[in-house]
């Protein structure tokens, strides 16, 4: 699942794709059918990348990406976000069994289910995250952080620096007045 560049904006419903950045803020495009473009002010708008969001767990926090993948693997239909809180709690016991039931509210569950329904039809939901390798048995291998640097040849019209060239002498910053 590739959620790179998908963000939630504080105070706005839905999810947005980060398109770019300018002096005024971040340029975002809505993932809904309207494809609204907005500029989120850098100084007073909070953006949360879906890759970085975690859910409270009993032992350790759960990554949102893992919970969304578990929602995709649910047998049967995932209920609508407007479903009863008891139905959502039962669903979350299935997809995130180690979530902290006291800290994860029904409103959080509704938001995650809403995000799932927005993302499930997009191609990025089924593609692999960039930098992730897949093992031969189909399991995910840890992401590689090592980057190979490829040497690029110099253009033929570039002039090589002369070995005999001397650096220019720096001018003195102090002025001499009559003594």
Describe this structure in words.
The protein is α+β, with helices and mostly antiparallel strands. It folds into 2 domains: 1-52, Roll (SH3 type barrels), CATH 2.30.30.730; 54-128, no CATH class. It is 19% helix and 18% strand. The strands form 3 sheets. The chain has a 5-stranded antiparallel β-sheet, with no helix packed on it. A two-stranded antiparallel ribbon has the order 6-7. Strand 3 (25-30) and strand 4 (37-41) form a beta hairpin. The N and C termini lie far apart (77 Å). Residues 53-119 form the DUF6852 domain.
List the topology elements.
Layout: E1 6-9, E2 16-21, E3 25-30, E4 37-41, E5 47-49, E6 54-55, E7 62-63, H1 64-72, H2 85-95, H3 106-119, E8 133-134, E9 140-141
Antiparallel strand pairs: 1-2, 1-5, 2-3, 3-4, 6-7, 8-9
Apparent shape: globular
Give the overall pLDDT as a whole number: 75
Strand order of the largest sheet: 4-3-2-1-5
Largest sheet: 5 strands, antiparallel
Distance between the termini: 77 Å
Please state the CA-atom Rg, rounded to the nearest Å.
26 Å
Give me the count of strands.
Answer: 9
- Structural class of the helices, strands and pairings? alpha+beta
Helical residue percent band: 10-25%
Q: How many domains comprise the coordinates?
A: 2
How many helix segments? 3
**Into which percentage range does the β-strand content fall?**
15-25%
Low-pLDDT segments, ≥5 res: 134-158
Q: Which H/E pattern describes the elements?
A: EEEEEEEHHHEE
Region (Disordered): 133-179
Domain DUF5606: 3-50
Biased composition (Basic and acidic residues): 139-149
Domain DUF6852: 53-119
